[in-house]
Amino acid sequence: MPTPTSSNHCLRYWDLADHIRIDDAIALWCGVEPAELAKLNFETQCMSAKRAALVTALRDGRLGYEDLGLLTGQGKVFRGAPVDELIEKGRLVINKASLRRWFEQLPFDDRPAFLFEEERQPVLPDGSDIAEMTGLKATRREFVAALKAELPTALRHLQSGNIAPVDLAQAAIGPGMGVYTRYSKVVDAQGNPVSVREALTLINHVLDETLAEQEGDFDTDSRFALAWFEQHGFEEGEFGVANVLAQAKNTGMNGLVESGILASSRGRVRLLRADELPEDWDPATDPRLTAWEVVH
Asked: Could you identify which of 43, 61, 67, 110 might form a hypothetical disulfide with 47, taking C-beta atoms 3.0 to 4.6 angstroms apart as the criterion?
């Protein structure tokens, strides 16, 4: 199914609705087809931030909404519950007129096309939009080339903003999806559309390549140690957070412990200091030698 950015004429049907679900609003705000996003069961950092902004506005009364209600055993519809409960139960829909006013009052310019018709690409009489006619399409190869050209700069910007290493992979998805949604369509060698799921896979692959280039020829265990040290030094941290980072660096927690650079106990982990290495440690006989051990 085409994305909203490639089929602006489809957005006209949203004009007929006076309310919208939070998940649909976030997807359309980010330029992603709601149904396709729902299949992923995944949310980027940018999407989480936008969700938090909407929820805060709902709680503060700055966004109007309606309770879809709960059908009782007597066939009556019960309405009335706290905002958070309505959101959790999927019973809350946002008033679109109120949502548009909320966007107009933001301190920065943001006009999603599903709410602001003037932001849409003009629709031609045959139903196609100008973006398609002007060739804003890309092959899979061109999409990857654009990622390789732009992600390194975006990554350096994120790193300079003190993004935690464990959050870096997720944070980089936003700039990557920005490249994806720039095009009216991204197609593979057979001419089939590249889905959001496949785009995310390609973004993560290019991200891994970019990080690997930054870290040179270090082994995967040392890459984990470098990223962990930037955030925690030799202090303890949560096992779950370390596990996410280890997976991002293509290593595992058991291997990190076995390599002798990490201690793990009771849900907490920390890097081992140089003075904690065995006195008889010999790099020549170490079966899992790491650059981190050698320089420490």
From this structure: 43
